[in-house]
C-alpha cells in the first residue's frame, strides 16, 4: 500500500498533521533513512508529513556567539555554512564527510538526529561534543532540551512533536571529528570520535568533551576519558594512550560490517587523529 503524503505548507500545519495522524504518521524530509526501511526489514508508515516546503526549517544562522541550525538543513548546506567557523570544525567535518555527496545533498540534520535506530549517524557525536541544545515544536508550544536528553527521549516523544532547530554556543572551544569507514561497511563508519577542548595559556587542556558514535547502539560521551584529559598537553600520542586505558568503558555492537571488539579497538587511533587535527590547527 502506498503511503499517504501530505505536504505541509507551514510548521504549524506540519505539527497539526502529525498530531492528527498519531502513530500512523511520521515526518518526511530528505527521506534517505526512510527509503532504506526495506533493507532493514522495517515497514513504511501509512502516512508521512513532508516538510520540504517549510523554508524556516532550512535556515542556518551563524552569529558571533551562537549558531542556530534548522532541522531541515541538509548535510551539504551545513558543511558549507560552517566551513572555516572556529570551534565548529567537528560539526563541519561530520556534515561534510558523512555517507556520500548524493546523500549529503538530501539528508537533513533533523533526520540524522531523529533516526533512533541509526547507530552510525555522524552528526550526533559532533553535537554531543559541542554540547548542543535542540528545540522541539508541538501544539502546546516549543520546548528546548540538551542533546543528551533528546537522545534518551527521541523514540518516545509522541505524535505531534517535531525537532525544528539545533542551537550551539560559540564558546572558544577547538573541535575535531574522526571516523573510520570500511569498504564493506558501505557509507557508514564503524566508529566515530568527536573531540572538543579548551586550552589554558600553557597549552594544557582545561575542558574536554569526547563523544563516540557507531560503537554502541546510541552515541554517547566518553566521560572517564574527558576527566583524564584535563591537565594534559594537547599531544596526540598521550591522548591516544589515555584512550587505551579507558577502552573498557564501551561494549561494541556486533554488525555485518564489523564485530564489536574491533569498533572499540580503533577508538584510540581515532582519538589520536582528532587530537592531531587540533594540534595542526593550533600550530
UniProtKB/TrEMBL annotation:
For the FAD-binding PCMH-type domain, which residue ranges apply? 1-173
What the entry lists under InterPro entries is as follows: CO_DH_flav_C, CO_DH_flav_C_dom_sf, Diverse_Substr_Oxidored, FAD-bd_PCMH, FAD-bd_PCMH-like_sf, FAD-bd_PCMH_sub1, FAD-bd_PCMH_sub2, Mopterin_DH_FAD-bd
Keywords, A to Z, come to:
FAD, Flavoprotein, Oxidoreductase
One Gene Ontology MF term: oxidoreductase activity
Q: Which domain of life is it from?
A: Bacteria
Please tell me whether the keyword Oxidoreductase is annotated for this protein: yes
Transmembrane ranges? none
> Which SUPFAM superfamilies does the entry link to?
CO dehydrogenase flavoprotein C-terminal domain-like (SSF55447), FAD-binding/transporter-associated domain-like (SSF56176)
SMART domains the UniProt entry points to = CO_deh_flav_C
Q: This protein is called what? A: Molybdopterin dehydrogenase
Which organism does this record belong to? Answer: Aureimonas glaciei
Amino acid at each position: 500500500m502506498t503511503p499517504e503524503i501530505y505536504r505541509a505548507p507551514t510548521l504549524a500545519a506540519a505539527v497539526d498533521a502529525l498530531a492528527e495522524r498519531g502513530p500512523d504518521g511520521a515526518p518526511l524530509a530528505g527521506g534517505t533513512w526512510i527509503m532504506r526501511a526495506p533493507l532493514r526489514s522495517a515497514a513504511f508508515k501509512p502516512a508521512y508529513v513532508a516538510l520540504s516546503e517549510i523554508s524556516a526549517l532550512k535556515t542556518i544562522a551563524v552569529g558571533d556567539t551562537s549558531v542556530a541550525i534548522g532541522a531541515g538543513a541538509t548535510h551539504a548546506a551545513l558543511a558549507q555554512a560552517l566551513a572555516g567557523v572556529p570551534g565548529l570544525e567537528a560539526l563541519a567535518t561530520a556534515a561534510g564527510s558523512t555517507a556520500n555527496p548524493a546523500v549529503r545533498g538530501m539528508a537533513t540534520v533533523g533526520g540524522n538526529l531523529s533516526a533512533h535506530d541509526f547507530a552510525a549517524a555522524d552528526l550526533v557525536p559532533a553535537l554531543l561534543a559541542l554540547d548542543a541544545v535542540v528545540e522541539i515544536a508541538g501544539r502546546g508550544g516549543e520546548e528546548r532540551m540538551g542533546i543528551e536528553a533528546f537522545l534518551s527521549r527521541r523514540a518516545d516523544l509522541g505524535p505531534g512533536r517535531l525537532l525544528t532547530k539545533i542551537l550551539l554556543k560559540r564558546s572558544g572551544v577547538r573541535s575535531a571529528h574522526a571516523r573510520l569507514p570500511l569498504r564493506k561497511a558501505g557509507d557508514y563508519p564503524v566508529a566515530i570520535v568527536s573531540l572538543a577542548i579548551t586550552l589554558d595559556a600553557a597549552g594544557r587542556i582545561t575542558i574536554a568533551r569526547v563523544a563516540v558514535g557507531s560503537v554502541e547502539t546510541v552515541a554517547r560521551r566518553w566521560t572517564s576519558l574527558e576527566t583524564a584529559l584535563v591537565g594534559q598537553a594537547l599531544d596526540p600520542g598521550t591522548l591516544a594512550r589515555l584512550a587505551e586505558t579507558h577502552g573498557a568503558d564501551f561494549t561494541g555492537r556486533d554488525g555485518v560490517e564489523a564485530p564489536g571488539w574491533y569498533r572499540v579497538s580503533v577508538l584510540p587511533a581515532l582519538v589520536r587523529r582528532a587530537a592531531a587535527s587540533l594540534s595542526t590547527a593550533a600550530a
